[in-house]
């Protein structure tokens, strides 16, 4: 558990430094290696995105089959990328993404973080659907940085991104399980509640920035 906590703490520090240094959203990806590296990095560059992933992983530890929630989130991110890159016009897609996608990510982060502070266990289906929604917006957002990339770098980018999303979520799941979160124990440890409060504050800051 200490290794997982240390790794996530390091990612949060990297994400915070990237936010303070105003890391550019657009990338010039010409090779598969560049695509893979940026795919690994993009999910943890945005602090609101990162803490949202961690919150999903912590919440998933409350269910025996919680790994499926992280899987749905990662697969939905792929769908979000496909929707943006290929401009697929499914019913309701234009309405869903018409507003600020950054605000939607911040809101989903706030919702997941609030769940970490609630005494009652969330519903599995509701959490899975919310994870899918968050994944769609996550994928739709990062697709902006790879528009124009060739097929091989694009595939490498998606592989790297999915790897980061799943590893971070599953690491957070391991942390939650080690701290006593689980289907039998329905009370959240106070440390998880404090983390939820901090994550919620981060989401509120990014939400206010996206609406200003």
Main features:
single chain; 9 helices; mainly alpha; 212 residues
Describe this protein's structure:
By secondary structure, the protein is mainly alpha-helical. It is built from 9 helices and no strands. Helix 3 (47-60) runs parallel beside helix 6 (101-117) and helix 6 packs antiparallel against helix 7. The protein is globular. The protein starts with a helix and ends with a helix. Residues 90-99 have low confidence and may be disordered.
Question: What does the overall shape look like?
Answer: globular
How much of the sequence is in beta strands? under 5%
N-to-C span? 39 Å
- How would a crystallographer describe the biggest sheet? none
Q: Overall pLDDT, averaged?
A: 79
Helices, by number, come to: 9
Helix content: over 70%
Number of strands: 0
Radius of gyration: 16 Å
SS-based structural class? mainly alpha
Spell out the helices and strands N to C: HHHHHHHHH
Q: Which segments are poorly predicted (pLDDT under 50) over 5 or more consecutive residues?
A: 90-99
């Amino acid at each position: 558990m200490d290794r997982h906590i240390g790794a996530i703490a390091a990612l949060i520090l990297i994400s915070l430094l990237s936010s303070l240094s105003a890391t550019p959203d657009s990338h010039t990806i010409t090779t598969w290696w560049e695509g893979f590296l940026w795919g690994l990095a993009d999910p943890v560059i945005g602090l609101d995105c990162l803490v949202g992933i961690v919150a999903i992983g912590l919440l998933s530890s409350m269910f025996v089959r919680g790994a499926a929630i992280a899987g749905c989130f990662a697969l939905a991110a792929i769908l979000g990328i496909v929707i943006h890159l290929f401009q697929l016009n499914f019913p309701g897609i234009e309405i869903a993404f018409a507003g600020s996608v950054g605000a939607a990510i911040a809101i989903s982060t706030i919702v997941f973080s609030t769940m970490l502070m609630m005494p009652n266990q969330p519903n599995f289906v509701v959490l899975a659907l919310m994870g899918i929604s968050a994944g769609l917006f996550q994928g739709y957002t990062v697709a902006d940085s790879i528009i124009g990339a060739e097929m091989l770098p694009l595939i490498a980018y998606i592989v790297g991104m999915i790897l980061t999303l799943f590893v971070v979520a599953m690491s957070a799941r391991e942390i939650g399980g080690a701290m006593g979160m689980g289907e039998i124990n329905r009370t959240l440890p106070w440390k998880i509640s404090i983390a939820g409060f901090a994550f919620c504050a981060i989401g509120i800051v990014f939400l206010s920035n996206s609406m200003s």
